[in-house]
Amino acid sequence: MLGTLAVAASWSVLFVGAAQPAAADTQAKQWHLGAMQAEDMWKVTTGEGIKVAVIDTGVNPSTPSLQGQVLKGVDATGAPGDETDDYEGHGTTMAELIAGTGKGGGLKGIAPGVKIIPLRIALDEFEEEKPSAAVQDSANAIRAAAESDARIISMSFSGRHYSPQELEAIKHAESKGKLLFASVGNKGHKENERGYPAAYPQVVGVASADRDGKVSYYSQHAGTVDVASPGSDVPRWCDNSFKSYCDGDGGTSAATAIASASAALVWSLHPDWTANQVLNVLLDTAGRDWEDGVRSKYLGHGLIRPSMNVLKGKGDPGAPDISPLTKEKTTGSAESSEPSASTSASPQPAKNGAAGDKAVAVEETNSSDDGNQLALIIGVAAAVAVLGGVAYAVVRRRKAA
User: Fold this and answer.
1) CATH code for the domain in which residue 146 is found
2) Distance (Å, rounded) from C-alpha 98 to C-alpha 197?
């Protein structure tokens, strides 16, 4: 009892959280819903009107929590099946953490009014079974997402190698007004190398935090963290049979999905804002006990708190055309997040390390281990299919983070 109260007090300081709502067993384990004041935010917005592109292992649209939530997407693997064939269960978990309705006792997303655009790439064992995985599958998926009417691109994976093709795709997505999130990786207690795509300057690198608001011990911290989000002790689908959920850590993957959903809530309330303005508000209102503008090595600008804007109207959106990440002028706008007329007819510089890890909250801890929408350019989809057959190269092994 005392332990529970202590955790609640900690989150009330860091996230301005509320009591955990009563729910089915799986949802009751989603401690971040209470910590982030999800129930109160849903009275204001559920993320309606926002689409999120989930680049992952595929998304199963038939789980109770995702029925009616998944739109048409693209498979970039060149393998049998399509973007709805989730070969691992990972992508479906991420989609539910973003936009799950919670029906059937499934995972409930932070933004259940959002629609998901799935894009399947080769990760983990799937890539091992196909060692000739296309060098450009993730780049093609990012380009496809850029040409869709998704405003947010969520990438819950991490790899150790820089790719010029991937960087160009990311720059293209930024030019189209997209907001990109990616996992920093789950080997902070081991190699702790830079993880891509989080290490690209245009991408928001997301770290994992635990129930106490401290960085998860495994969360990588190699100069790529921009913000932190709940990741420890977040349930997930056990495997691609979709029969049950498993306990354990959602890791920086779950943290990325929850951060993406947080952005969707803010953008839904301010549809005329640019990606830069949405991100600027999220960074401005992040929970931290160190100087504003200083990026902690472990938690970036702090713990993501969309409720500060959704419920209290706080946060400075800043200049619409200046990236909070690079401080450079961007061409993307809210309007360019919408598909063009032609689209509707038919998809390495690392971040500099930041000074200052002043907060106790950044210390490593011993947390536990464990079809209306088809705005994808036909040419890109065709390119994906061709590359799936011929343009293979072994350059890296991607991990679902």
Assistant:
1) 3.40.50.200
2) 20
